[in-house]
Amino acid sequence: MYTTDFSRQTQSDASPGPAEDAAQNDRFQARIDADQTIEPKDWMPAAYRKTLIRQMSQHAHSEVVGMLPEANWITRAPTLKRKAILLAKVQDEGGHGLYLYSAAETLGVSRDDMIDALHKGKAKYSSIFNYPTLTWADIGAVGWLVDGAAIMNQVPLQRCSYGPYARAMVRICKEESFHQRQGFEIMATLMKGTDAQKAMAQDALDRWWWPSLMMFGPSDDNSPNSAQSMKWRIKRNSNDELRQKFVDVTAPQAEAIGLVVPDPDLSWNEARGHYDFGDIDWDEFFAVIAGDGPCNADRMAARRRAHDEGAWVRRAALAYDRKTRAKAAA
Ligand code: BYC
Questions:
Q1: Which of 22, 125, 158, 198 could bridge to 65 as Cys pair (CB 3.0-4.6 Å)?
Q2: How remote is the CA of residue 191 from the centroid of ligand 1, in Å?
Q3: How many Cα atoms are found within 13 Å in the side-chain-facing hemisphere of 50?
Q4: What is the pTM of this model?
């Protein structure tokens, strides 16, 4: 995901701005500590607003850019049923983007500005969508692992302190659970197939495993936004906690269908009650979020093209809206 110009925030931004006094901030923090939700018209620190705009807009961008790797397979899905399922899933992702842009707009930023920031390369979207979907098994791996990681991260967001974001996440999480199941079912079906199908599923897991672990963001000791976001209860868990949960849930699923997780260090640690796992290649992660992943350029070009090609639809909708209002006024 990507930051936007308007949303760059450091720890020092969290201190009260000139127009904010400490008492207001204390009252705000007390509401958060009492687990009350913050609503659009409530007073909030400028830094809280900025952090939410950053996270929610990059989340929305991820949903929309995330349509691209899967859409690549709609026409090539192996059966009519698989095509229909994939088409519905990709539409769901578009819908998630729309709820999230709308929820972010309640903070006073316009959707046009958010999309403009994405198109100008000033805004982030999830690193995961900069990897290619090379085979049909990749569609299984994306549903199982990418949507699986997304759920792990998004379930706690249903209890995020900002009401519109928390409420948007309820339906999104329901749909993501269904997506995860369909991805796992594709992988399970391939693993019951021919040797070539099994090899294709294993190859997809080999390529998607590590990038999926990177989705949770940098390790806790290198996550500049986590402490403040957790204090504000935007985030309820740290990046490493959620990554560990994901590994704990997913490793046995791989084993159950005969797949081997591409990590020689993966092993159950009885004492910790968790799986141990190997080191993540953080150089790769930071290169991808800096724009140097395998598909960054393609993804951005496709988004900009889609936006340009949709300009007439936006103009038509606005013209219709003007006509309807004029009629109503007359
Ligand atoms: N990719 O301090 P940190 C989906 C950035 S889509 C790119 O830990 P934070 C789906 C981070 O933004 C799932 N950038 O940050 C759709 C920050 O940079 P800035 C999308 C990343 O915000 C279609 C810097 O690294 N889910 O479900 O506390 C098909 C330092 O990080 C990434 C969401 O967006 C990354 N992976 O925590 C299928 C969930 N990780 O902004 C599925 C909402 C970190 O300071 N977002 N960065 O320049 C979050 O929960 C949080 O933003 C994160 C990062 C946990 C991701």
A1: 125
A2: 31
A3: 19
A4: 0.93
CA distance 142 to 218: 20
10-residue averages of pLDDT along the chain (330 residues): 37 52 94 97 97 98 97 96 97 97 98 96 96 98 98 96 97 95 98 98 98 98 96 97 98 98 98 98 98 97 96 97 96
Burial class (CB in 10 A: 0-12, 13-18, 19+), 65: buried
Torsion angle defined by CA atoms of residues 155, 159, 161 and 164, in that order, rounded to the nearest 10 degrees: 80
Q: In the structure, which protein residues have their CB atom closer than 6 angstroms to any atom of ligand 1?
A: 1, 3, 54-55, 58-59, 62-63, 66, 93, 124, 126-127, 146-147, 150, 153, 214-218, 223-226, 229, 235, 239, 289
H-helix segments, 131-271: 136-141, 148-154, 163-191, 195-214, 226-231, 239-256
Considering only CA atoms, which of 85, 249, 76 is closest in space to residue 179? 85
Residue with tokens 């620190």: 45
